[in-house]
Specification:
About 40% of the residues lie in helices and about 10% in strands.
C-alpha cells in the first residue's frame, strides 16, 4: 500500500469537503492526469460532461456486463459520440453464454453476488489496474449505505485514490446540472427507473428500490 498516497487522499478529502464538484474533479485531474480514470454507469453523463470541460484525455470506463438494457448501451454510444473523451468498454472474461455453460443459466437468480463479481467487479478491477486513482458518480443521497461517502478517500481493496465529486449532491443538484448543460440522460430515467443496472436485476422504482428487488442485496460490490 502507498501510505503517502493514502495520506494525501484523506487530507484532500477533508480539505475539499463542501467544495463544488468541479473543483473536486479538477483536483483529481490536476493531481493524477491520465493516471485517473472515471467509471460511468451511463445513467446520465454528468461526470463525463464535467470531465470534458476540464481535460479531454482522461478515460471513461464503462463496464459492459452483457446484461445491460439497450437504452444503456445507446447512452454509452451517445456519450462516445458527443464528448471528446476516450471511452473504454470493459467486458467480463466469460460471455453470458459462457457463464451459463459454466455456472448454469440465470446465475443472477441463483447467486447474484457471484454474478455481479464476475460481470462487474472483476472487469472494473482489471480496467482500473493501470491507474492510480478513479472517480465515480456515487452520491450520499442514493441510499442509507452511502450516507458517509467521502468526496475523496482511499479504496483499500484496490490500493487507489477514490474520488466522488458528486457525493454531496442531491437529486435536485443532478437535475439542475443536466438542465443547465443539456447533459445526455439514459431514457430509462424517464420511464420509472430511478436507478439503472442490468436488466435481469432492475425494476422500476424510487431511488434504488428497483435494484435486486425482493432480495436483501443493495450493492453490486464495485463500491
Amino acid at each position: 500500500m502507498d501510505a503517502a498516497l493514502k495520506a494525501r487522499a484523506l487530507r484532500a478529502g477533508e480539505e475539499l469537503e463542501g467544495a463544488p464538484a468541479e473543483e473536486i474533479l479538477g483536483w483529481a485531474v490536476e493531481e493524477f492526469g491520465t493516471g485517473l480514470a472515471v467509471a460511468a454507469s451511463m445513467a446520465e453523463a454528468v461526470l463525463a460532461d464535467m470531465l470534458s470541460r476540464i481535460r479531454s484525455d482522461v478515460p471513461v470506463i464503462f463496464v459492459d456486463t452483457g446484461y445491460h438494457f439497450a437504452e444503456t448501451i445507446g447512452t454509452r454510444d451517445a456519450v462516445a459520440q458527443t464528448y471528446s473523451l476516450p471511452i473504454i468498454s470493459a467486458s467480463p472474461q466469460l460471455t453470458v453464454a459462457g457463464q451459463d455453460a459454466v455456472h448454469g443459466p440465470r446465475l443472477y437468480e441463483s447467486d447474484p453476488d457471484l454474478c455481479c463479481r464476475m460481470r462487474k467487479v472483476v472487469p472494473l478491477d482489471r480496467a482500473l489496474a493501470p491507474y492510480r486513482a478513479w472517480a465515480a458518480g456515487s452520491r450520499r443521497a442514493e441510499s442509507a449505505g452511502r450516507r458517509d461517502l467521502p468526496v475523496i478517500g482511499w479504496d483499500q481493496r484496490r490500493g487507489k485514490v477514490k474520488v466522488l465529486p458528486l457525493a454531496a449532491w442531491t437529486d435536485e443538484d443532478v437535475s439542475r446540472y443536466v438542465q443547465e448543460h443539456n447533459v445526455i440522460v439514459n431514457p430509462l430515467l424517464s420511464d420509472g427507473y430511478d436507478s439503472v443496472g442490468c436488466w435481469p436485476c432492475t425494476r422500476r422504482g424510487t431511488g434504488r428500490e428497483g435494484r435486486w428487488s425482493g432480495t436483501s442485496k443493495t450493492e453490486c460490490g464495485i463500491h
